[in-house]
């Protein structure tokens, strides 16, 4: 293990975060707020730590799998701690554990909040809170890799450790160019959404921060009522559409850019993803229709919430905790499924569900035909046994973390629905759950132990479990 290269690379990531903190500082200056000094202090602290780590003397810059996992997990923890400083130093989130929870929720694109009154935050803090979604959606390391000098392909281990999905999205052979393409697609789609929201007469500040939450599939809003505060069907359909877009594997956008539209549309994962959305929207619309005045509004709310939950964005257009049990159960199922691999969405991922289903089907066939040989194929390509094993291991670890987290949260005086959905929504990076942590609730009433547990869940979910597990194992071995 090359600890020097781990610390030096982590230092560069912290330096990037200090640079990104300049944007909310500019917003604070523009609105003439008294929070400017707190952003300056946070920038200076991050700058100092980043310079100290990045200037550590030592030869060798080789990064392999172990270094990649440690850099990703360690850097995400550190940028979350440093990112919480503006909230804590300003007193707008007075308890550090709450500031950390909010920041981790932002960077991991979860959207769970401990704030009872979001609108009490200053413009600078609102901007930084939503900006963490946009940074975390694509991954701060992807931004860094887009500009790092090439290192003979070894940056591939950083990409594999951070990019969501069992199979890394890869457009070209060069890792740095791959990161630049990802950034280009991400920025272009974000600009498109801002433009569409501005066409609907949404204020510029609102358009930008709502886009941050949509692009990162995070869900932080600047109003207590989330998207429901606008009560505008144009905004809901535009945001709903872009949530679905950002939940699609970015590899397909690159294929479309190259003109291979037919090849992109043949994707089994895409068909499955859109099929799930269509099916769940229809069922929920019919289920909630008796409590609505017209089918148009029922469809709109069903479409928006299904889009929001399956992409793990977490925006709210209606209080779905009042919906019938069938609709609420379906939404919890969507929390578990999540979006496509290689997207900014969370959850188990449609690709994993697809492979697990085909693996179960294969094993069932072999029970009845032991001598037959069956293989698993997705998009007419054979799936390597190592990938299947990795997905099965992921699913098992996901369940174990879910079970242990539920047990820890059971020490709080919450009902079972609140406890279970608290864990599911954080582990899948969704945001709101049901009960106390539902669409009109928040996580402020939870104990510090529960919040720390959910912070771990959010980080584990965003980093696809293995890097954060590796971090815990690394420190255990050091002891």
From TrEMBL:
Residues annotated as signal peptide: none
Presence of the UniProt keyword Cell inner membrane in the record: yes
Main location: membrane
Residue ranges the record marks as coiled coil: none
Membrane topology: Multi-pass membrane protein
InterPro entries linked: Cat_transpt (IPR003445), TrkH (IPR004772)
Assigned keywords, A-Z: Cell inner membrane, Cell membrane, Ion transport, Membrane, Potassium, Potassium transport, Transmembrane, Transmembrane helix, Transport
Localization per Swiss-Prot or TrEMBL: Cell inner membrane
TM spans (from-to): 12-31, 37-56, 68-89, 131-149, 181-199, 237-258, 270-290, 329-348, 391-409, 416-434, 454-475
Similarity comment text for this entry: Belongs to the TrkH potassium transport family.
UniProt-recorded name of the protein: TrkH family potassium uptake protein
Annotated source species: Romboutsia faecis
């Amino acid at each position: 293990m090359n600890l020097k290269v781990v610390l030096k690379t982590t230092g560069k990531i912290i330096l990037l975060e200090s640079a990104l903190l300049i944007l909310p500082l500019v917003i604070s200056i523009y609105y003439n707020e008294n929070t400017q000094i707190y952003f300056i202090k946070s920038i200076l602290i991050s700058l100092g730590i980043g310079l100290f780590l990045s200037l550590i003397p030592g030869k060798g810059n080789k990064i392999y799998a172990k270094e990649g996992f440690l850099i990703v997990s360690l850097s995400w923890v550190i940028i979350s701690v440093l990112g919480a400083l503006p909230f804590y130093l300003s007193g707008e989130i007075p308890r550090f554990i709450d500031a950390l929870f909010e920041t981790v929720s932002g960077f991991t694109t979860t959207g769970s909040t401990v704030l009872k009154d979001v609108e009490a935050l200053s413009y600078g803090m609102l901007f930084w809170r939503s900006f963490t979604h946009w940074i975390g959606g694509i991954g701060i390391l992807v931004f860094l890799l887009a500009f790092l000098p090439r290192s003979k392909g070894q940056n591939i281990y950083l990409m594999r450790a951070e990019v969501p999905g069992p199979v890394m999205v890869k457009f070209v052979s060069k890792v740095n160019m791959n990161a630049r393409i990802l950034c280009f697609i991400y920025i272009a789609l974000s600009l498109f959404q801002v433009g569409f929201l501005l066409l609907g007469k949404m204020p510029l500040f609102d358009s930008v921060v709502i886009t941050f939450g949509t692009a990162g599939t995070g869900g932080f809003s600047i109003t207590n009522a989330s998207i429901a505060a606008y009560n505008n069907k144009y905004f809901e359909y535009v945001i709903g559409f872009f949530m679905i877009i950002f939940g699609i594997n970015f590899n397909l956008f690159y294929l479309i850019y190259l003109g291979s539209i037919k090849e992109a549309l043949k994707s089994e994962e895409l068909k499955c993803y859109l099929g799930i959305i269509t099916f769940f929207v229809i069922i929920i619309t019919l289920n909630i229709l008796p409590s609505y005045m017209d089918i148009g509004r029922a469809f709109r709310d069903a479409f928006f919430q299904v889009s929001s939950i399956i992409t793990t964005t977490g925006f709210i257009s209606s209080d779905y905790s009042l919906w019938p049990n069938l609709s609420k159960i379906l939404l919890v199922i969507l929390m578990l499924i999540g979006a496509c691999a290689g997207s900014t969405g969370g959850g188990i991922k449609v690709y994993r569900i697809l492979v697990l289903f085909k693996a179960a089907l294969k094993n069932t066939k072999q029970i009845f035909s032991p001598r037959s040989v069956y293989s698993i194929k997705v998009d007419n390509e054979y799936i390597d046994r190592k990938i299947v094993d990795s997905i099965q291991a992921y699913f098992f670890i996901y369940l174990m973390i879910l079970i242990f987290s539920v047990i820890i949260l059971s020490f709080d005086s919450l009902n079972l629905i609140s406890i279970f959905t608290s864990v599911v929504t954080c582990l899948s990076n969704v945001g709101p759950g049901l009960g106390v942590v539902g669409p009109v609730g928040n996580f402020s009433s939870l104990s510090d132990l529960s919040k720390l547990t959910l912070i771990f869940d959010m980080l584990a979910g965003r980093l696809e479990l293995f890097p954060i597990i590796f971090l815990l194992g690394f420190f255990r071995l050091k002891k």
